[in-house]
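[agent] plan:
  1. take the single chain provided in the ticket
  2. run structure prediction with default settings
  3. attach structure tokens to the ticket
  4. add a short note for the reviewer (M.T.)
[agent] executing step 1
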Amino acid sequence: MSFWKDKRVIVTGGAGFLGSYVVEKLKQQECKDIFIPLVEKYDLTKEKNIIRLYKDYPANIVIHLAAVVGGIGANRENPGKFYYDNVVMGAMLMEYARQFEVDKFVAIGTICAYPKFTPIPFKEEDLWNGYPEETNAPYGLAKKMMLVQSQAYRAQYDFNSIFLLPLNLYGPRDNFNPNNSHVIPSLIKKFIEAVEEEKGEVVCWGTGKPTRGFLYVEDAAEGILLATEKYNKSDPVNLGTNLEISIKDLAGLIARLVGFKGKIKWDTSKPDGQPRRKLDTSRAEREFGFKAKMDFEDGLKKTIEWYKNI
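[agent] step 2 finished; step 3 output follows
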């Protein structure tokens, strides 16, 4: 019988980018009892709403995906909001999950929690060996507090919660709003508009030297469900791929895929963010058999195709 068949599952952020894929995969696994608390009815930064959520919908499992997120620009403009909203959501959701005797709490962290100069590849043991990159530190630290809480609650209350660290996500349905999108949708939008408007030049942020890895959103959803089903420790786990690509090479690849043949200029007055990011993904494979499937260029093509058709 499917692990999910008789489970009642709350998916916070279930109407969002990653959440929509998690909900689809839950349905494919015969999970028939899924609740998505929409922000209009359940503002999860308010304690009374979290209590009401658990009373309205007694759940076996909570998958906490909801977050206040954005790219470097949005993080620089809203450090207080990004810290407060994320830290109170995580802390109260886990505390009341414990009080309402939820069987398992799945906390989704962020790769931004790693120290700025983490050795490559990022290993989970390095999480506390320094301060995160300054532009997204408030967000990264707020999410990392769920790891502290998870470990403390397991030690004191024997509460079953896990903490996953997904790599930068991309794929169809991503957020393409220029005010708070991440790097891949931002670049896709810029280059497609440049082709449509016959521009000879596109300006990108920073120097192009930093490196990033990326995880296709459907692979991320698969990893979250596998971990929920099979992993029951509070040690943090990276979810990602072994990819490491410079922002300069990424911009060139996206330009080629959308047919932009002009010049790419770099605005070095804008911040680069963390110098390098590449994950060690061996723990996820060892603990619950997760290995990402999507080829990066194929995933980019699917994302570009989706954006062109919206």
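[agent] step 4 note for reviewer: The first strand starts at residue 8 and ends at 12.
[agent] ticket updated
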